[in-house]
Amino acid sequence: MARWLRGYLAALVISLGPGLPLLVLAEPDPADWDSVLKQATGQTVYLNAWGGEPRTNEFFAWTASQVDERFGITLQHVKLSDTAEAVSRVLAEKQAGNVNNGAIDLLWLNGENFASMQHNALLYGPWAEQLPNFRWVDADNNADMRKDFTIPVNGFESPWLRAQLVFFHDTYLIAQAPRTMSELLAWAQRHPGEFTYPRPPDFLATTFMKQALLELVPEPEKLYQPVTNSDFDAVTEPLWAYLDALHPVLLRQGRSFPASGAEMRRLMADGETALAFAFSPSEAAIAVDRGELPDSVRAYTMNGGTLANVSFLAIPFNATHKAGAMVVADFLLSPEAQLRAQDPDYLGSTSVLSVTALPAQWRERMQLIRRHPAAPSEEDLARRLAEPHPSWVVALEDAWLQRYGVR
Amino acid sequence: MKRKLAKKNFVLPLAPILLGLLVAGPVALGLLMILLPAFGYLPAIGQETLSWQSWTALFDTQGLGQSVRLSFVAGVVTPVIALVSVILFLAATAGTALDRLIRRLVSPLLAVPHAAAAFGLAFLIAPSGFLSRLISPGLTQWQRPPDLLIINDQLGLTMMLGLVIKEIPFLLLMALAALPQLDVPRRVAMARSLGYQPVLAWLFTVAPALYPMIRLPLFAVIAFASATVDVGIILGPGLPATLSVRILGWFNDPDLSMRLLAAAGALLQLMVSVLAILTWLVLEKLIAQGWQLWQASGNRSRFNRSLKMMGFTGLSVATVLLLLSVIALLINAFAGTWRFPSALPDAWTLRHWETTLTSLSGPVINTLVISFVATVLAVILVLAALESEQRHGRSRFTSLWLLYVPLLVPQVAFVFGLLVFTEFMHWQPGLVLVILGHSVFVVPYVFLTLSAAYRRFDPRWAQIGLSLGASADRVFWHIKLPMLLTSSLTAAAIGVAVSVGQFLPTQLLGAGRVPTITTEAVALASGGSRNVIAIWALMQTLIPMVGFILALAIPQLIWRRRRAMRSVT
Amino acid sequence: MTTHTLDIRDLRISLAGQTLVSVNTTINPGEVLTVMGPSGSGKSALLAAIAGFLGSDFTAQGEVWLGADRIDTLPAEQRGIGLLFQDPLLFPHMSVGGNLRFAMPAEEPDKAGRIAGQLTAMNLGGYENRDPATLSGGQKARVALLRLLLSRPRAVLLDEPFSKLDAHLRQDVRAQVFAGLIAAGLPCLLVTHDADDAAAASGPVIQL
Questions:
Q1: Domains (ranges, CATH) in chain B?
Q2: Which of A78, A84, A272 sits opposite B513 (nearest CB)?
Q3: Nearest-CA residue of chain C relative to B474?
Q4: DSSP state, B257?
Q5: Which domains does chain C have, with CATH numbers?
Q6: What Pfam family is a match, any one (chain A) (predicted)?
Q7: Cα distance between residue B520 and residue B512, in whole Å
């Protein structure tokens, strides 16, 4: 039976749910991996992850075919336009007393939502460090695998991709690109209308603000503490001065902002802007390959480094198919999946695996992956800035909307 | 000769009641479930005391006034422009070749869902859009797209344009359905014999009689335009967004206490829509008085030319914009690299389709299943209710106002309430809920389309059948149903089109687990490339289009040897 | 063949308290009673009341009997009253044969043979599979009559059945219809405002 059909019937049965007493499964024990695999067979795992990027969707489609073939798991990618929708659903389920039959089995989270879900005890764990493939991560030598936006992960999340803020510009339109945030302002003033950035609540809006803050504030360490420990207005004062100067020279004079990173990229594709950024080192390269961006586009990072973090997967406390979710998370950590994730022909992301920790055959294959001409150089990617404390995200978002939310 | 005693049919009289409940029940329930949280009662998050808190919080929200203004203005301006265009068009072109052409185009145009039309329009009129490319650099000297705020403009003009080009075909279809009952040629001939120029003759004698017949559809347009979510997201302003778009954001906020705010916002949305309709009622009175003065002036020829011009241009421009929007989608779906200001892509490619194909199948199947089941359910119920009406007399449950309720109450106002209700009942979100949710919106349109044909159906056909000794059931299956096949299929095609276009009920009642083409297309608005968005929008258009084609082709095929059946529509 | 009389006993039809028409008469088997009157005199209401299609805004008093059966309390399909309208009203989605078959009682043996025989008798031999839309006006009228007779009615009501026919056809069709009905021994009630129809029916006439 075709996979979609089987998934379809499964969805049908679940939607008929109210009348059926649902089976409550025993909690899987990740230390006994064979039993996890056994329990996972035949499960339908609902992976809730952002669905705005076709190549990520394709990667999950490939993952679904693999876990079906290998483990008999039906993976359904529930495409979110905003991760907050999923968080809100888990919370609603908890409030409604649904503790065993949650609609979400596996969730791609960002640090802000991880912090809020941990705070509300909405996650299941610890489980992540017991996954067989976790050892390739070499967490003892890569501390960022155990922290999400400064918050300790404690095995409640499994890493699956590295991400880093990367700028890209169209060399055909404007040869020189700004290499610091202060330079970016001067650049924009020389080339009005050639740049814009997404508006909150898109995460790239706060990413852009955090990047600017890290460079502009005299004491960046404050950003790694909860926002309540600082005088927010005083700390962020340089940022608002910066944005006040920047907005009049943005595209549409800052009267309208793109809603998302993809829209910002579309503006560049249409020749409206010459500079953009993304939280994925390979985004520009892949867009060039797909003909979505001109081949004159080049990606780079700022001289002082750019924000970098790790993408994690989590299991909600009430997930119906926890064993299946673990198997999928483990598969995504496997050298094979990571290789494909890193390959610019597919996802073109950055692997979380430590090349030195891998067995020789995989190490070679990882090293053989070509670098795209439009992708940033190794040295560029080596300059990483850690994410500030998640509490800054909401505070920055609110303050931005307060200042610029009504145009 | 002995005759069998007819079995009494006990199910049929229930059909109108079931129909009324299916349509108005969820609206009432949804509104009730939104009323409580709007005043602070939401036990799920530990809020059990009634208070005004969510209202004070709502009115403290930044830019609320502007959001409300946007929604209200869209709710009044959109129907004015759409109605004026349709009326003037009908007055100016009655019997011309353009009239015949547009009549033929109106159904296919109706098949273009709101979201698809909005995307197409964005691709058409953006600074780097198809129109700008067509005239650049030749006429404009533009080597780069001009830095103009067209899409997402702060006044919502582009959003209203998007709504207008979609609502015009709807109002036109409603008007065309009503006109045959008005004996237009006789009315116009009478006025012309009194010396009135043709356009004025139509406006003075036909328009006042037509207006009451399309008033209810017009109110549906007001309610829709003042509360649209998908068009608002795609074309509407962002800082701040329209009220309905913001309500969606509040409902999806990870902070569940925002739901109280959202509930209050939903009620406010209801008030805004009601206010827009009230404003319309006042406008209606003023225009009626002005109309009478104009008519009483006895002027027979003034404005005839300019009115005629307006009638021709208004609707033609809207139609051409909608057609070009679809063409813009088509180009984008096959475009490779496409630097500004090239009018056409530098390269064409099938790659976008190849990469999208795998993710298309699931949502396409969901869309087909949902729209098919919801439509079949609606057609069966509506036929049963109409047949019951003819056998047992008109029921209060099929009164037009009741069936129009889901079209007059903004979706955001009650679909959220329904969601609260299903969560309260611990009903699993999924396909069944989505299908039921769609039926609420499909049934009214199916009823509107089918009831006209059913009630117009010559009663002598049934009388002949009965007098030949056939039972009422046999007459229904062997005479009415085949003879009304074309009407039933047209109603079904409209039902499918309505279902395919649904965004909010699908997204909320399916918890995102029942992706359809529309939910995927709107989700991609936040992410995908133009090419991928174009593919989804085209698929969204294709399914209703195939529905309309089948509704036309199936009767032609079945009745290929029955001449009279092919000319009957 | 059993024959019946159609007995209309003090049938009074009123609309909003106003009596429209009041009839008390008996029609014998093979007899055609003609009711004449201007439009609005309640002719159509009279037919509707007897056939069982009277609209709910009308009220009817009195009784209608067919032989020994009281029929005004039965639903339309059980009354055994056949109808002929101005238009032949052949079902456009059925073939000629399909129209005839639809009319025949379910228990009728050898439907196809009977249809073929009757069509031949009407000079329409081999027309079973024809689309009714391709027939001439006279042919349609004959098929309509045949359909009526094949349904084995016990009485027949005719509502200006010849008014839409061309003048040269009218006499032929009229003669054929009356001949068929009278031969079948059916009591008939004809409503018309054409004096020639009344004359051709050669039965009693009621003037409204």
A1: 8-42+350-569 (1.10.3720.10), 65-349 (1.10.3720.10)
A2: A78
A3: C102
A4: T
A5: 6-93+156-207 (3.40.50.300)
A6: SBP_bac_8
A7: 9
Tokens representing B52 are 């005004």
How confident is the prediction along chain A (407 residues), in pLDDT tens digits per residue? 444 444 444 444 444 433 333 445 568 888 999 999 999 999 999 999 987 777 888 899 999 999 999 999 999 998 887 787 788 788 878 877 788 888 899 999 988 889 889 888 899 989 999 999 999 999 998 888 999 988 999 999 999 999 999 999 999 999 999 999 999 999 999 999 999 999 988 889 999 999 999 999 999 999 999 999 999 999 999 999 999 999 999 999 999 999 888 889 989 988 899 999 999 888 888 888 878 888 899 999 999 999 999 999 999 999 999 999 999 999 999 999 999 998 888 888 888 999 888 988 888 888 888 778 888 888 888 889 999 999 999 899 999 999 998 87
CA distance B123 to chain A (A): 11
Model-level pTM greater than 0.95? no
Residue C85 to residue B464, Cβ atoms within 8 A: yes
Query: Helices A33-40 & A322-333, crossing angle to 10 degrees?
Result: 110
Are residues B529 and A266, on separate chains, in Cβ contact within 8 Å? yes
> How many Cβ atoms from other residues are within 10 Å of residue B564's Cβ?
16
The answer to whether C147 and C97 have CB atoms below 8 angstroms apart is no
* Cβ pair A85:B512 closer than 8 A: yes
């999928």: which residue's tokens?
Answer: A328
What's the one-letter identity of residue B27? V
From C157, which residue of chain B is nearest by alpha-carbon distance? Answer: B467
Q: How far is CA A354 from the centre of its chain?
A: 19
Distance CA C32, CA C189 (A): 6
Q: What residue type is assigned to position C119 of the chain? A: L
User: Which residue out of C102, C128, C130 would a mutagenesis test of the B interface target, given it has the greatest number of B Cβ atoms within 10 Å?
Assistant: C102
Q: Compute the distance between CA of residue A312 and CA of residue A97 in angstroms, rounded to an integer.
A: 26
Pairing type for strands A106-109 and C155-159 reads unpaired
User: How many Å from the N-terminal Cα to the C-terminal Cα in chain B?
Assistant: 40
Q: Judge: B359–A402 Cβ closer than 8 Å, yes or no.
A: no
The residue of chain A with its CA nearest to that of B240 is A406
Q: Which residue in the set B240, B256, B351 is minimally distant from A88, CB to CB?
A: B256
Q: Which two tokens stand for residue B558?
A: 């079945």
Which of A23, A55, A78, A79 to substitute to test the interface with B, most B CBs within 10 Å? A79
CA angle A289, A294, A297 (to 5 degrees): 90
* DSSP-assigned letters across all residues of B435-482: HHHHHHHHHHHHHHHHHHHHHHS-HHHHHHHHHTT--HHHHIIIIIHH
User: Pick from C81, C85, C105: which is nearest to B460 by CB?
Assistant: C85
Domains of chain A with bracketed CATH: 3-163+309-376 (3.40.190.10), 166-308+382-404 (3.40.190.10)
DSSP letters spanning A20-52: SPPPPPPPP-TTSHHHHHHHHTT-EEEEEEE--
Minimum Cα–Cα distance from A259: chain B residue: B526
Residue of chain B with shortest Cα separation from C134:
B563
Query: Which chains neighbour B (Cβ–Cβ under 8 Å, 3 or more pairs)?
Result: A, C
Give the dihedral sign, CA B252/B254/B256/B258: negative
How many CA atoms lie within 13 Å of C175's alpha carbon, on the beta-carbon side? 5
Tokens of B406: 């889901």
Cα–Cα distance for residue pair A50/A346, rounded to 1 Å = 17
Contact B127 A256 (CB under 8 A): no
Closest to C51 (Cβ–Cβ): which among B3, B5, B463? Answer: B463
CA distance between the termini of chain A:
54
